[in-house]
């Protein structure tokens, strides 16, 4: 039996761009990460997008046993109400190993302890049960559902809305 990978979050480096571009350009999971219509993404377009990222966003590279396998982020922050949205993206071969839940847990701690946020929220495609389970493990609760809100691979899908309050997270410790 193999050991669960050691998961850490760190800043993006130039060496990470290949794996992060591979995730961003994956048309197979495009709908689960992006409200835009699916289209091929070139490396130049990807790098231009990185150059115009919002300065208020917080993005970490996820390392599993020293190898970059994805990213996790806080975005759409509201500094007055003290909340932000959470997002995660992993390469296919890193899924199902506990890496996602470990990265989300570290991001949640960072958000509440270091950034002094009060609330985190997210949206997940209803059929993405693995992602929903990972968020639930970190303490996120179901807050609502947008019925047939997303067009995903030829069918309309519900969006599950989830949230976590700092007061709830403290109670989990």
Task: Outline the structure in words.
- The chain is of the alpha+beta class.
- It has a single domain (7-172), classed as Aminopeptidase, CATH 3.40.630.30.
- 28% of the residues lie in helices and 35% in strands.
- It has helices at residues 17-24, 43-51, 99-114, 129-137, 166-172, and strands at 7-10, 58-64, 67-78, 83-90, 119-125, 141-152, 155-165.
- It has a seven-stranded mixed β-sheet, sandwiched between helices.
- Strand 2 and strand 3 (67-78) form a beta hairpin.
- The radius of gyration is 16 Å and the shape is globular.
- It starts with 6 loop residues before the first strand and ends with a helix.
- 24% of the residues are buried.
- The mean pLDDT is 90.
What is the CATH superfamily classification? Gcn5-related N-acetyltransferase (GNAT)
Shape, per Cα inertia axes: globular
CATH-assigned fold name: Aminopeptidase
- Rg (C-alpha, Å): 16 Å
**How many E-type strands?**
7
Question: How many H/I helices?
Answer: 5
Low-confidence stretches: none
Order of helices and strands: EHHEEEHEHEEH
Helix fraction, binned, reads 25-40%
* Helix/strand class: alpha+beta
Instruction: Output mean pLDDT.
Output: 90
Distance between the termini: 28 Å
Number of domains: 1
Gross CATH architecture? 3-Layer(aba) Sandwich
Quote the beta fraction: 35-45%
Class in CATH? Alpha Beta
């Amino acid at each position: 039996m193999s050991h669960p990978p050691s998961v850490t979050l760190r800043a993006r480096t130039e060496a990470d761009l290949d794996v992060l571009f591979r995730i961003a350009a994956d048309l197979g999971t495009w709908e689960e990460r992006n409200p835009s219509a699916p289209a091929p993404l070139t490396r130049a377009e990807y790098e231009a997008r990185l150059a115009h990222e919002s300065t208020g966003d917080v993005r970490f590279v996820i390392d599993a046993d020293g190898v970059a396998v994805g990213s996790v982020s806080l975005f759409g922050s509201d500094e007055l109400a003290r909340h932000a949205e959470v997002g995660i993206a992993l390469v296919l071969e890193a899924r199902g190993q506990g890496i996602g839940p470990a990265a989300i847990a570290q991001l949640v701690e960072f958000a509440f302890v270091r950034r002094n946020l009060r609330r985190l929220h997210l949206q997940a495609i209803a059929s993405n049960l693995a992602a929903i389970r990972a968020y639930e493990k970190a303490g996120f609760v179901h807050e609502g559902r947008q019925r047939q809100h997303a067009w995903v691979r030829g069918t309309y899908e519900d969006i599950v809305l989830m949230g976590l309050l700092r007061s709830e997270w403290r109670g989990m410790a």
